[in-house]
Amino acid sequence: MDPLTLLLIAFGLSMDAFAVSISNGMTIRHQKVNNALRIGIFFGSFQALMPLIGWSAGLSFREFISGVDHWIAFVLLSFIGCKMIYESRKMGAREKEDKPMTLPTLLVLSIATSIDALAVGISFALLKISIVTPIIVIGIVTFVLSSLGVLIGNRIGHLFEKKIEILGGLILIGIGIKILIEHQ
């Protein structure tokens, strides 16, 4: 996989985490940098772990579906992208949480924002892509964007939250189309 495509996938996958980080940043009053790093570590770790889990699962059934693997990758990435765009349209002003930094809250948010990465991991297995570099890049990009998202959210609030989700969705759909075109 070429580096630009990998960066775009990492960027697209991190948009959910980035938007949630902005929301969390709006609720944080003290220790902004510590909380930004904490959220970045949680979100980045889960975004790296989920593709690995999906890739492992995808390896077990790759041989059965090798003739249609590019279609499955296209459908998965397009579905995830459309879901992100749909969710951005229904995203209202998020309610402020009393304790956005508790461990249970961080775990739930980390899992919720990384489910899409699980499907991308399956796509990587179907396309016979080595998983090591993608999970490192996805984890680092998500860590950086999530940490920045907290700091940005603390400063500017939710002005761009919907647009960020839409951009991430469009990037994933575009990559799905690219995979489909390249396979034919």
In brief:
With 184 residues, the protein is mostly helical. The chain has helices at 3-27, 32-61, 69-90, 103-126, 132-156, 161-183.
The chain-level mean pLDDT equals 82
Order of helices and strands: HHHHHH
Class based on secondary structure composition and strand pairing: mainly alpha
Name the helicity range. over 70%
Q: Which percent range describes the beta-strand content? A: under 5%
CATH class: Mainly Alpha
The Rg value, from CA coordinates, equals 16 Å
Number of domains: 1
CATH topology: Growth Hormone, Chain: A
Major sheet size, sense and barrel closure: none
> Strand tally, please?
0
Instruction: State the shape.
Output: globular
Which stretches of 5+ consecutive residues score pLDDT under 50? Answer: 93-98
| Tally of helical runs | 6
The assigned CATH architecture is Up-down Bundle
For the termini, the CA-CA separation is: 17 Å
Structural description of this entry:
The protein has 184 residues and is an all-alpha fold. The protein has one domain (3-183): Growth Hormone, Chain: A (Up-down Bundle). 81% of the residues lie in helices and 0% in strands. The protein has six helices and no strands. The protein has helices spanning 3-27, 32-61, 69-90, 103-126, 132-156, 161-183. α1 (3-27) crosses α2 (32-61), α2 runs antiparallel to α5 (132-156) and α3 (69-90) packs antiparallel against α4 (103-126). The longest helix has 30 residues, at 32-61. The protein starts with a helix and ends with a helix.
Topology (SSEs and partners):
Elements: H1 3-27, H2 32-61, H3 69-90, H4 103-126, H5 132-156, H6 161-183
